[in-house]
């Protein structure tokens, strides 16, 4: 049975190597931030988090999900801070008592993307007019379909444009149920229209024949808010470290860091915390 | 297409430290899960093969079916278990490498048990009558047969490792794909694909495949050496 015993020891050792480092090493202070695919995939966090860590020693672990999912993760107590962009959903989160305060952090905007030759002829139109035309033409349109902030913004635009999506949707309306990146990839592969946040659009390396057709409309404004999860709901929330991150984001340092993030000379997010 | 490949070669040549630590995490998580899975699955599979008990047929069918457990469903199940609001929430394991090991162990164990059961059942067809005539208990008989087929279990371990290191559903849900902490090869490849950086995604994919090939070659080489040194397999 010698070999068996040796085998058991070997596997025990491997298992210990797997689990061990976490049990033994004291980890530096860290928090979990549930945030959106747009902030992660645009590269913003990679830019600002090292600055925060240098200043405070606190490590921020970002779980990037759609806004709806990010708020759900926080509702279960699995995140300390949420940084998302869907005002009505955030208000609901506050009203349920899962956070005590919400702070504006920054904004960017949504842009209507579509093929350069623009078969539906929406370039430069008012955004609601553009949405009406897309539905009338049944132009291929990719929707996030994942309850994210961008998806909810898109649904609000259809509604405000008086387009009854349930009645008119057909094969032209492609609900991919994924993050901003995959939705962009799908649109670029099928030359379809879609609503995207400008940050992810700018950082995407797979734009194909797509271009921005409608932008600058005030209804395309995209506000990000940050909230510390209420420790009365979830006692495991790291209040001190979480609050430090919230405070830093809306401080001059944090706001400057956000403003400094650029891709190809273009600023992606515009800080607008009320100070 | 050709451009993507050319760029991939360039990206391969310039892969940085991040990739090394991501690959190391993938290996660490999947090897640990295979290790724990072997400790649980091999005795379980062998016992099911050797012992006779009511409902054994159903257990065998279940084990075989669970070889194909969808990783994302296992991930979701483990997520709900480990969530702060779940029964094991107090441990605070969600979104850590340990959570990924737990989820992958849940994937590996039935696979290892089912394959072990098959191998042990085949070996027992020869050895069984003799062992039973010695009046050994089911546990002792299992141990003897496991020892007899020990070299074949290397292949079982490799099959489990291959499934784990290439799956994304479970590690993504319970690990959260946190940069520098729970980002594995597969979640990194998926993220780069989502960001539209296809050449980097492909470069990472080639690294993953090379790793899997290297580990398989090493394990089979070791098996061959051990078989020659300690008796035939």
Automatic annotation (TrEMBL), chain A:
Gene3D superfamilies: Periplasmic binding protein-like II (3.40.190.10). This is Tungstate transport system substrate-binding protein. SUPFAM superfamilies: Periplasmic binding protein-like II (SSF53850). Coiled coil: none annotated. It comes from Hansschlegelia beijingensis. Residues 27-252 form the PBP domain.
Automatic annotation (TrEMBL), chain B:
Keywords: Membrane, Transmembrane, Transmembrane helix. The chain crosses the membrane at residues 20-51, 58-82, 88-108, 151-178, 198-222. The keyword Calcium does not apply. SUPFAM superfamilies: MetI-like (SSF161098). It is found in: Cell membrane. GO terms for cellular component: plasma membrane. It is a multi-pass membrane protein. Residues 23-219 form the ABC transmembrane type-1 domain. InterPro entries: ABC_perm_TupB-like (IPR049783), MetI-like (IPR000515), MetI-like_sf (IPR035906). It comes from the Bacteria. GO terms for biological process: transmembrane transport. The keyword Membrane applies. This is Tungstate transport system permease protein. The lineage of its organism: Bacteria, Pseudomonadati, Pseudomonadota, Alphaproteobacteria, Hyphomicrobiales.
């Amino acid at each position: 049975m010698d070999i068996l015993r040796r085998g058991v020891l070997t596997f025990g050792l491997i298992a210990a190597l797997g689990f061990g480092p976490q049990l033994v090493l004291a980890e530096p202070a860290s928090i979990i931030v549930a945030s959106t695919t747009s902030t992660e995939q645009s590269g913003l966090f990679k830019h600002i988090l090292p600055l925060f860590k240098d200043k405070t020693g606190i490590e921020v672990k970002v779980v990037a999900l759609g806004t709806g999912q990010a708020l759900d993760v926080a509702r279960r107590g699995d995140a300390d801070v949420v940084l998302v962009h869907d005002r009505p959903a955030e208000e609901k989160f506050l009203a349920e008592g899962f956070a005590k305060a919400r702070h504006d952090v920054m904004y960017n905007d949504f842009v209507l993307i579509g093929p350069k030759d623009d078969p539906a002829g929406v370039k430069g139109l008012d955004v609601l007019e553009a949405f009406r035309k897309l539905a009338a033409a049944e132009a291929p349109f990719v929707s996030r379909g994942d309850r994210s902030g961008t998806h909810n913004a898109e649904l609000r635009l259809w509604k405000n444009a008086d387009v009854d999506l349930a009645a008119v949707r057909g094969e032209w309306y492609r609900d991919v149920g994924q993050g901003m990146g995959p939705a962009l990839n799908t649109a670029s592969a099928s030359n379809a229209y879609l609503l995207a946040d400008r940050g992810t659009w700018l950082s995407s390396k797979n734009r194909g024949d797509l271009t921005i057709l409608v932008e600058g409309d005030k209804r395309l404004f995209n506000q990000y808010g940050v909230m510390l999860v209420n420790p009365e709901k979830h006692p495991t929330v790291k209040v001190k470290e979480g609050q430090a991150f919230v405070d830093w984001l809306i401080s001059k340092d944090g706001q400057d860091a956000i403003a400094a993030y650029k891709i190809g000379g273009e600023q992606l997010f515009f800080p607008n915390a009320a100070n | 297409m050709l451009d993507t490949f050319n760029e991939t070669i360039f990206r391969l040549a310039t892969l940085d430290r991040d990739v090394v630590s991501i690959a190391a995490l993938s290996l660490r998580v999947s090897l640990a899960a295979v290790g724990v899975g072997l400790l649980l699955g091999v005795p379980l599979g062998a016992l099911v093969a050797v012992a006779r008990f009511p409902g054994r047929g159903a257990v065998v069918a279940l084990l075989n079916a669970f070889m194909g457990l969808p990783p994302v469903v296992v991930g979701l199940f483990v997520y709900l278990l480990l969530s702060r609001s779940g029964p094991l929430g107090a441990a605070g394991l969600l979104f850590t490498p340990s959570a990924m090991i737990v989820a992958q162990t849940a994937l590996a164990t039935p696979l290892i048990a089912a394959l072990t059961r098959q191998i042990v059942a085949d070996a027992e067809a020869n050895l069984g009558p003799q062992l039973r005539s010695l009046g050994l208990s089911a546990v002792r008989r299992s141990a003897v047969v496991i020892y007899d087929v020990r070299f074949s279990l290397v292949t079982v371990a490799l099959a489990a490792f291959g499934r784990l290191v290439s799956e994304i559903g479970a590690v993504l849900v319970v690990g959260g794909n946190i940069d520098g902490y729970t980002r594995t090869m597969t979640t990194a490849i998926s993220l780069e694909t989502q960001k539209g950086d296809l050449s980097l995604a492909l470069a990472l994919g080639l690294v993953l495949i090379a790793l899997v090939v290297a580990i398989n070659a090493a394990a089979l080489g070791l098996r061959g050496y051990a078989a020659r040194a300690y008796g035939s397999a």
